[in-house]
Amino acid sequence: MAEGLGHALIVGGTGMLAAAADRLAQDGWRVSHIARHATTFAAGREGQAGFDADYHDEAAFRAALAAALEWGGPPGLGIAWFRTLKLPTPRLMAEAMGAPGASARLFQVVGSRTAHPNHPDRLPRAAAVAEGLPNCLLRQVVLGFRLEPAGARANTNAEISAGVLEAIAADRPLTIVGQVDPWPLDRA
Ligand SMILES: NC(=O)c1ccc[n+]([C@@H]2O[C@H](COP(=O)([O-])OP(=O)(O)OC[C@H]3O[C@@H](n4cnc5c(N)ncnc54)[C@H](OP(=O)(O)O)[C@@H]3O)[C@@H](O)[C@H]2O)c1
To answer: Does the beta carbon of 176 lie inside 6 Å of ligand 1?
Structure first.
């Protein structure tokens, strides 16, 4: 295992992003998780630690965030999978990224509707979570669709984890995992 890549903080990494978290840990990141069942998930996973919190509970999230930073140090990498951004906690995570004088990349994972071609305002609105935070370099990853002869389908967990890892490696501002444009006719 390579050593010393730093701290990667993941919110929502215990489900569809589990394989991505495991890969980052194998690559040498200290990976911390905040999720409701983060402790259970991280138990026995080398290089990973879990801090339980519901992201609807601001106080619990603040406590988990503080414990994660205590464990791993200032995060140089973040992956944020919040089902909704209409909460204070996504901003708290963005504020926790990096350290004075050291910026960090935050990969914000959003659902396909955030990138609906008829609603070009949605991605910039989602990116506002990191507005005014010079240490937090926001990258967005959209979970799109896979078009198949039988119709559109959601990405599998394996495709999502691989897509997020590819987005981190490429370090582009916006990555679409699958596609959203043209929008599938059977996903009104
Ligand atoms: N195309 C799209 O737009 C789109 C969007 C979303 C999902 N999907 C599909 O849906 C599948 C599953 O999606 P999913 O959201 O259920 O993903 P998931 O990653 O399987 O589960 C959600 C993740 O967020 C955490 N989480 C959920 N609620 C939380 C809360 N209140 N507080 C803290 N952490 C919380 C969960 O951990 P804990 O349970 O431990 O809290 C888990 O790590 C994906 O594989 C994908 O195919 C598609």
So the answer is: no
